[in-house]
Design brief:
Seven-hairpin_glycosidases; binds 1-deoxymannojirimycin; single chain; mainly alpha; 19 helices; 6hp_glycosidase-like_sf; calcium ion binding; 20 strands; 670 residues; Glycosyltransferase
């Protein structure tokens, strides 16, 4: 029939047939899942194709929006969660230091998201082939870049200004965080670096490739080069390949028998542009430096001088021989960590692979076990072998949790069996504790300012210094750092403490509170006075400050046992940081005075410089007949850098100096 052949009429209605259950009584309500599913499905089938497409498109659109907004919100949530966990772990509060806003922590910026895993650092350019002298890489002599330097100095004051703002306006918490008294740039995550290392890193001699205009060397720098050459002549003539020059007896002394002065001086030669000297020393390293020796070395000293020196020279020169040697000595030092507590022994036999504490004790020195981290961490990054970093990180984590600290100040000894501090109650920023504080800050900087426990310990310690160790002398009211022994304050200050102004300034440059810069300014003045108030214009090893004004007395008193000078670097080191960050020429002038006095009282005519026994006797300073390796490794290097106006000559946003003045790259440069 027609009805059977013609197409069905277009339906303008939807017919709905109710099944008995669906009708559950008239107007009955059935909300069972099965009913709802079937009903929805039917309705869906009854929609036109266009209607279905529109609905599907809407769903797809909403899903895409959902995914996008989830990923962009995820990080802040993760960050907040991590923060609150961190806060729970962190005990006790630093006195006087409170979280400005504990609930707010900025999300790590995208670029930093993976930086906890230092294997994923942005790739660095490959070095040029080894053995080719390229001059002092990014240390090539360039014109003073005042624009850049001004920018750097401005950066510090910007942080200060922002801190003031932050106090006034809560809003600023997004651009700057106040964290336990520290002002930190907002691009820092809370995640500690992963201990996994995936790929070895390349040397950092990246800017060697940048052909920047050379900066002419100024007269004062020339004087440093002359001093270095004179020292080197003595070493070459009488001590070549040995540890230290004895310039008066024209011989040498051995400590480890590893050419200590030569290795310590390698990167200084590179920085000073001493091509011939460098090449000759390189040959010695390649052909004659052998670690397969039955000799006991001090873990700390060989790490900061030898491992540190080799690593930094590798970075500056790009020459793989230095990395090979660094790996070799690094591996040979590892047995030191095989102790019941994992706090390393002080001594290792690098030939036998055995380690032991000093004969008279099972203690190690706190500064020694906590000032090898920059070097071992860098060795892990370069080799891709995590064992070096793991060993030293474990020490830091352990020390972080220890009791026996006094407002962040640490005792001087730690037991390798129990892992506990010993000889409690004595606190100093001088010998045996000094570089513990220095390396807290510097590790934090090296790792990209993420390892909050390090920063926390550093900030707490500086508060401890302020609370227990700072006093003013008479008559000049010099701020100095004394010592505390079982509750008794002593106005004694080691020259070694003069690293502190430089470290404080470095912290302030990296966004920490401006108070630290103020303290640095006061302390560096004191360190300079430790030279200026002495007859030879050279500082003794230890001074005692006068707390009460006495007629005819200066601020600085010197005991007969303390009046030697070992050509130490700490004051010049701090002058260098202060000049870099402030541009105040007085710091250069002070350094220049010191160099002249070294030349006057410690220079040996036949080559080399010598430590002296009596800084108070200009007519006979009593030469000791020894040139310490750090005179070439540190003192002259910091002098040269102090007199330079080129902030790219070891840029402090790219490199961090180890405690022996060997620059190592910052993993996440600013
Ligand atoms: C150097 O070996 C290092 O600077 C160390 O941190 C302290 N002692 C000397 C220099 O004085």
């Amino acid at each position: 029939s027609a009805a059977a052949t013609s197409p069905p009429p277009r339906r303008d209605f939807i017919s709905v047939t109710l099944s008995p259950e669906e009708a559950v009584g008239a107007g009955g309500y059935n909300n069972s899942k099965a009913w709802r599913r079937r009903s929805c499905w039917r309705k869906w089938k009854q929609l036109s194709r266009l209607q279905r497409s529109v609905i599907l498109f809407l769903f797809a659109f909403l899903a895409v929006c959902g995914v996008i907004s989830y990923t962009s919100m995820g990080e802040p949530w993760k960050s907040l969660t991590n923060k609150s966990l961190d806060d729970q772990r962190t005990e006790p509060e630093v006195p006087g230091l409170k979280l400005a806003n504990p609930a707010v922590l900025p999300a790590p910026q995208k670029a930093d998201a993976n930086l906890g895993d230092y294997a994923e650092l942005s790739p660095q350019k490959l070095p040029k082939p080894p053995h080719v002298w390229r001059g002092p890489s990014n240390l090539q002599i360039k014109p003073p870049r005042r624009d850049v330097r001004l920018k750097t100095r401005h950066d510090t004051s910007r942080v200060v200004e922002e801190q003031v703002q932050a106090d006034k306006e809560e809003k600023t918490e997004k651009s700057i965080i106040s964290w336990r008294g520290a002002v930190i740039e907002p691009d820092q995550s809370t995640e500690p670096p992963s201990s996994k290392i995936k790929e070895p890193e390349k040397p950092s001699s990246v800017e060697a490739e940048d052909q920047k205009e050379p900066v002419p060397i100024n007269e004062r720098q020339m004087a440093v080069i002359e001093a270095f050459r004179h020292a080197w002549k003595g070493y070459k003539d009488f001590a070549w390949g040995h540890d230290e020059l004895k310039p008066l007896s024209k011989s040498y002394s051995e400590w480890f028998g590893l050419g200590l002065t030569l290795i310590d001086a390698l990167d200084t030669m590179w920085i000073l542009g001493l091509k011939e000297e460098f090449e000759e020393a390189r040959k010695w390293v390649a052909n004659d430096l052998v670690f397969e020796k039955n000799v006991d070395v001090n873990l700390f000293e060989s790490t900061i001088r030898i491992l540190g020196g080799l690593l930094s020279t590798y970075h500056l020169s790009g020459d793989s021989i230095f990395l090979e040697k660094a790996k070799d000595i690094g591996n040979r030092l590892m047995p030191a960590f095989k102790t019941p507590s994992k706090i390393p022994y002080s001594d290792v036999n690098i030939g036998r692979g055995t380690a032991h504490p000093p004969r008279w004790t099972s203690d190690s020195t706190v500064a020694e076990v906590t000032s090898i981290q920059l070097e071992f961490r860098e060795l892990s990054r370069l080799t891709g072998d995590e064992k070096f970093q793991k060993a030293v990180d474990e020490v830091m984590k352990h020390v972080h949790t220890l009791s026996g600290k006094n407002d962040g100040l640490v005792p001087m000894f730690i037991n390798t069996n129990s892992g506990q501090f010993t000889h409690l109650g004595v606190y100093t920023l001088g010998a045996r504790a000094d570089s513990y504080y220095e390396y807290l800050l510097k590790q934090w900087i090296q790792g990209g300012k993420k390892e909050n426990e390090l920063l926390e310990d550093y900030m707490r310690a500086i508060e401890g210094v302020k609370k227990h160790l700072l006093q003013k002398s008479q008559p000049k009211e010099l701020t100095f750092v004394g010592e505390l022994a079982h509750g008794h304050f002593s106005a004694k200050m080691d020259h070694l403490v003069c690293f502190l102004p430089g470290t404080l300034a470095l912290g302030a440059h990296n966004g920490l509170t401006a108070d630290h810069m103020k303290l640095a300014e006061a302390l560096v003045e004191t360190c300079y006075q430790m030279y200026a108030q002495v007859e030879t214009g050279l500082s003794p090893e230890i001074v005692h400050f006068n707390l009460h004004a006495q007629k005819g007395h200066k601020d600085v008193e010197i005991k007969p046992a303390d009046r030697h000078n070992l050509l130490r670097p700490e004051t010049v080191e701090s002058l260098f940081y202060m000049y870099r960050f402030t541009g105040d020429k007085k710091y250069q002038d002070w350094g220049w005075e010191i160099l002249q006095n070294f030349n006057k009282y410690t220079r040996v005519p036949t080559g080399g410089y010598t430590s002296i026994n009596n800084v108070q006797n200009p007519s006979n300073p009593e030469p000791r007949d020894k040139m310490e390796s750090f005179f070439l490794g540190e003192t002259l290097k910091y002098m040269f850098l102090l007199f330079s106006d080129d902030i790219d000559l070891i840029n402090l946003d790219k490199y961090v100096f180890n405690t022996e003045a060997h620059p190592l790259p910052i993993w996440v440069p600013a």
